[in-house]
Write a structure and sequence with these properties.
This protein is mainly alpha-helical and 437 residues long. The protein has helices spanning 3-42, 45-79, 81-114, 121-150, 167-171, 176-205, 210-244, 246-253, 286-292, 313-342, 351-360, 363-377, 390-393, 401-427; strands spanning 156-158, 161-163, 259-260, 264-266, 269-271, 276-278, 281-283, 298-299, 382-384, 388-389. α1 packs antiparallel against α12.
Length: 437
């Protein structure tokens, strides 16, 4: 395995592992705070029990996320030294702000976990609110830095060196708002549906359990609105990509020809040798309409770009299709649930709907993983779009297969530990256990 492939594989593995814990770190504190607010309002001990359990779950994910995030920060410098040399002065600000947000989250999480009966109730609740805000802020700053890699701004290149650096302009790059909005909504939807699926499964076995009914309801209050709004943020992101990264858009849609009134493709197999996408269901003019809000707009095809400047089309296309499919299923389930509520039916008593929540529980995480593949692989062969190629940024250090193997084993071990801890947490809430009815 050559250096470039080993470095990209290691970075991809680290990102795919870390993103799970980052997503939970964004959304779980919101669930935790909502539950505590209900406890303070109703004094129903069920909400207090639920709050403390979700707080322990948040702590588990925060701890593992801190470890995997630290690994990622080291990997940026060790695997991509040339990238950090050039990009560090430009996007150092969002990384620094992310560190500030992380430590803020850690401080207030410590107050929250150990402050029960030690600080006033309202102060304890506000500590939880700060955990939720700082967790979301961490995501904002990290995604802003990534967005800059897709649409670099805030500097001038003079003889291959960055000059006239404006870190604020770099942070406010064209991709920043669309990516941040898309990521935050995806996090709340993914975590909300994952938690809902767990409690829906228990309700299928123990119908009427009040603890799990309450937990499912709160999870849906977070996950449903985010899932329903996500297609709108996807539209904003897609139009940004169409303007700034036309090769990525073409790969996402398997669009080889440059044409006006380009069709939207559902499914299909991109054949990079024959430069065509076969067996796709095509909706006439829909891609032009979605990308530019004009059914006759011209969409650039992959044939306009040299082969060495094209991303891996099949990976990007299938990842995009998977992301859209998962997001559509979640949005549809959210709309169906909302309709039942409007009709004054009880979603928690509908066994078919409960099974829907169970089956949908992994879809949010799968959509996020697929979405990041689209974002990162779709930018290739550039590590900084149009400025620096990935192959020019990788470390020359040999033997990267060794750290890749070691990190893979560490992630497997950490994953097993998390699964066992969460399994014990859920079991303790079953009737006859600590949670009770």
């Amino acid at each position: 395995m050559d250096n470039l492939l080993a470095a990209r594989t290691q970075m991809a593995l680290s990102l795919m592992f870390h993103i799970i814990f980052a997503v939970v770190g964004i959304a779980m504190p919101l669930l935790m705070v909502m539950s505590e607010a209900l406890w303070l309002r109703t004094r129903n001990s069920m909400y207090l029990d639920l709050t403390k359990r979700w707080a322990r779950g948040t702590a588990i994910f925060f701890a593992i996320g801190a470890v995997s995030g630290t690994v990622l920060s080291f990997e940026l410098g060790l695997l991509w030294p040339t990238f950090m040399e050039h990009a560090g002065p430009i996007i150092g600000m969002p990384f620094s702000l992310e560190g500030f947000a992380f430590f803020t989250e850690a401080i207030f999480l410590g107050i929250y976990l150990y402050g029960w009966n030690r600080v006033p109730a309202i102060a304890h609740l506000l500590a939880g609110v700060m955990v939720a805000i700082s967790g979301a802020a961490s995501a904002v700053f990290v995604v802003t830095a990534n967005a800059w890699m897709n649409t670099p701004r805030g500097f001038r290149l003079v003889d291959g060196r960055a000059t006239d650096i404006d870190p604020v302009a770099a942070m406010l790059n064209p991709a920043a708002f669309p990516q941040v909005l898309h990521m935050l909504l995806a996090s709340y939807a993914a975590a909300g549906f994952a938690v809902a699926g767990i409690h829906a499964y228990v309700l299928l076995r123990h119908p009427g359990d009040r603890f799990h009914r309450a937990a499912l309801t709160l999870a849906l209050l977070v996950g449903m609105p985010a899932a329903i709004l996500q297609p709108l943020s996807g539209d904003i992101s897609a139009r940004m990509v169409a303007r700034t990264q036309p090769a990525k858009l073409a790969a996402m849609e398997g669009q080889f020809e440059t044409e006006a009134g380009a069709p939207l493709r559902i499914g299909g197999w991109p054949d990079e040798q024959r430069e065509e996408t076969r067996w796709a269901l095509e909706i006439p003019k829909a891609l032009s309409l979605l990308a530019f809000h004009d059914p006759d707009a011209v969409v650039q095809g992959l044939k306009r770009f040299p082969r060495e400047d094209r991303p891996p089309v099949a990976v990007v296309h299938f990842s995009f299709q998977a992301m859209v499919a998962c997001g559509t299923a979640m949005a549809g389930l959210g709309l169906l649930t909302g309709l039942l509520v409007l009709l004054k039916r009880q979603p928690v008593e509908n066994r078919r709907l409960l099974w829907g929540f169970v089956l949908a529980s992994p879809l949010g995480i799968l959509a996020i993983q697929a979405g990041w593949l689209v974002t990162e692989v779709g930018r290739q062969p550039w590590i900084i779009q149009g400025v620096m190629r990935t192959k020019d940024a990788v470390t020359p250090m040999p033997g990267l297969i060794v750290p890749l193997t070691a990190i893979t084993l560490v992630y497997i071990l950490l994953g097993i530990i998390v699964v066992l801890l969460l399994k014990a947490q859920v079991r303790s809430t079953l009737p006859g256990g600590e949670g009770g009815n």
